[in-house]
Design goal:
three-stranded antiparallel beta sheet; SH3 type barrels; alpha+beta
C-alpha cells in the first residue's frame, strides 16, 4: 500500500478536547486498519522509551488535522497523549515518524 500524503491544519494537542469526533472509522480497508494499529504501537514504544514525537493525521467532524506529539498509551478505542488527552483511533488516518 502506498503512502498517502495528507494536508491538514496543524493544531496543538491542547485543542483536541474541544473537537467533536464521529464514531465512523476513517479507514475502510482492513489492511490499512491493521497498519494503523501497528504504527500506533510503534509510536507508543518510541514515545515511552525515547520521548519521540510523531505526527498524528486525524479527522474530526470538520476537517483533517495534524498534531505533533508523543503517544503515551492506547486503549482499544483511543490513543492517549500527555495530560490524558485522547484521540479516537477510528479517526486517525496515519502516524508519521520524523
Amino acid at each position: 500500500m502506498g503512502t498517502i500524503y495528507v494536508h491538514g491544519e496543524l493544531i496543538e494537542k491542547e485543542e483536541i478536547p474541544a473537537l467533536s469526533f464521529p464514531a465512523k472509522d476513517v479507514l475502510v480497508a482492513e489492511e490499512s486498519i491493521n497498519e494503523r494499529s501497528s504504527k500506533i504501537r510503534q509510536a507508543m514504544r518510541l514515545g515511552n522509551s525515547a520521548k519521540l514525537k510523531v505526527k498524528i493525521v486525524f479527522e474530526d467532524n470538520q476537517s483533517m488535522k495534524i498534531v505533533e506529539t508523543t503517544i503515551w498509551g492506547m486503549t482499544d478505542k483511543r490513543v492517549i497523549l500527555k495530560k490524558s488527552i485522547a484521540i479516537p483511533i477510528c479517526r486517525i488516518h496515519d502516524i508519521k515518524f520524523f
